[in-house]
Design brief:
With 332 residues, this protein is an alpha+beta fold. The protein has one domain (3-329). It is 33% helix and 18% strand. It contains eight helices and ten strands. The protein has a four-stranded antiparallel β-sheet with strand order 2-5-1-6, covered by helices on one side. It has a four-stranded antiparallel β-sheet with strand order 8-9-7-10, sandwiched between helices. A hairpin with a 5-residue loop joins strand 8 and strand 9 (294-301). Helix 2 (33-52) crosses helix 4 and helix 4 packs antiparallel against helix 5. The protein is globular and about 60 Å long. The mean pLDDT is 89.
C-alpha cells in the first residue's frame, strides 16, 4: 500500500479560487494539493489532539512530533506525496451562494441580498484523480495520512465554507484497502446502519492513531476542537420521509430547519465569531449514500456558549425535530 489512487467527486459546490483569489482559474488548478493537505492536517490534529491531550507543554510537543512524522516540517519531509489531476468539470452553475445556498434577494422577501454573497466554485459532479505515494518506509505514518484523508472525506469538506455544507467530496479508491480495514464512502442502507458502520470505522481510525502514540496518551482535551468522546458529538440527519434526492434540497432544509432554526431558538446571530476570531465549533456537511440519496452530518465540538453544558441545548433541539430522523454516532 505504497501507492494509492482515488477518484474524487464533488458532492456539493467546491468553493476554491486557486493561487490567485481575485482571478480564479478553476479549470486549470482544480483541487489544489496545498489546500487538501492543509485540511488533512487539521483533521489529523482533531483526532490526535484528543489522544495525547495538550494541557502540558510536553504533550504539545508530542502532538507536534506526531504531526511532523506524517506531514513533514522544515527539517523533515512528509511521509507521503500527493498529486491532483486537472478536473473534469461537470455542467452546472459555477457560482456558490455562501449563505448555505440561499440565493434570495431582499426583493423576494429575504432578510438581505443573499444572492450577492457568492463565489466561483467547482459544481457538483466534478471529478479529479488523486494519487498518494509513500516517500519512506514508515508504514504507520502513511496509514495515519490515509486516515486523515478518510476523516476529511467522511466528516468534512474542502475549500471555503466547508463547515456549512460546501466542498463535500466522495472518494473512491482505485484498489483495495482491506489491510486497513477501512471503507471510503457510505453504504446504501438505513441511517442507523450507516451510523453503525461509521462508528466502527471511527473506532478503527482511533486505534491506528492511539497505537502510534501508545506511550504518550493523556486524558485532558487541548484548547481546540478534538474528535474525541469528551470533545465532540456527531449526528446523522435526514427527513423521516427518506433521504434527500438532491444536495441542494438537503442544504436548504439543513439551513432553514436546523442551522437557522437553532440560532433563532438560542438567540444567536452566528455560531463562531470574526471578532474575536473563533472558528465555528459546528460542522454541517452533506454526504451521499448510494445513488441520489443524501443525508446531513452534524459535528459539534465542545462549546458551552453555543451548545449548552454537555451539548444539552443542541441535543434537546435535535430531539424536537419531529420531521427528521436523527441518529447519534458514538465517538471513541
Amino acid at each position: 500500500m505504497r501507492k494509492l489512487e482515488f477518484r474524487a467527486e464533488t458532492i456539493t459546490p467546491l468553493v476554491i479560487a486557486g493561487a490567485d483569489n481575485r482571478n480564479p482559474v478553476l479549470c486549470a488548478e482544480g483541487l489544489r494539493v496545498p489546500s487538501l493537505r492543509g485540511v488533512m492536517r487539521w483533521w489529523f490534529r482533531a483526532m490526535m489532539g484528543g489522544i495525547v491531550g495538550c494541557d502540558a507543554s510536553d504533550r504539545y510537543e508530542a502532538l507536534r512530533a506526531a504531526e511532523t512524522a506524517v506531514f513533514g516540517a522544515t527539517e523533515r519531509k512528509s511521509c507521503f506525496r500527493l498529486l491532483s489531476s486537472s478536473p473534469t468539470i461537470a455542467r452546472g452553475s459555477d457560482n456558490a451562494y455562501l449563505c448555505m445556498n440561499d440565493c434570495r434577494s431582499r426583493a423576494s422577501g429575504a432578510g438581505k441580498d443573499y444572492d450577492k454573497i457568492k463565489r466561483s466554485c467547482l459544481p457538483p459532479g466534478t471529478t479529479v484523480t488523486l494519487r498518494m505515494t509513500a516517500t519512506n518506509r514508515d508504514s504507520k505514518s502513511f496509514c495515519l495520512a490515509m486516515s486523515s484523508l478518510w476523516l476529511l472525506s467522511t466528516l468534512g469538506g474542502v475549500g471555503g465554507r466547508n463547515r456549512r455544507g460546501f466542498g463535500s467530496i466522495a472518494l473512491t479508491p482505485g484498489g483495495s484497502l482491506q489491510s486497513m480495514k477501512l471503507e471510503f464512502g457510505f453504504p446504501e442502507a438505513t441511517l442507523s446502519e450507516i451510523a453503525s458502520r461509521l462508528s466502527s470505522d471511527l473506532q478503527t481510525i482511533h486505534c491506528l492513531f492511539a497505537k502510534s502514540r501508545q506511550n504518550q496518551q493523556g486524558q485532558s482535551n487541548p484548547q481546540f476542537g478534538t474528535l474525541s468522546r469528551g470533545g465532540a458529538r456527531l449526528y446523522l440527519l435526514r427527513p423521516r420521509t427518506g433521504f434527500w434526492s438532491t444536495w441542494d434540497a438537503a442544504m436548504r432544509d439543513l439551513r432553514d430547519d436546523v442551522y437557522r432554526a437553532y440560532k433563532t431558538r438560542k438567540g444567536l446571530r452566528e455560531i463562531g465569531s470574526a471578532r474575536p476570531r473563533c472558528a465555528s465549533p459546528l460542522i454541517i456537511q452533506i454526504k451521499r449514500s448510494g445513488r441520489d440519496k443524501y443525508f446531513g452530518v452534524l459535528l459539534a465540538f465542545e462549546n458551552e456558549k453555543y451548545f449548552g453544558r454537555g451539548w444539552t441545548a443542541l441535543a434537546t433541539f435535535l430531539n424536537s425535530l419531529t420531521n427528521y430522523e436523527c441518529v447519534e454516532v458514538p465517538i471513541p
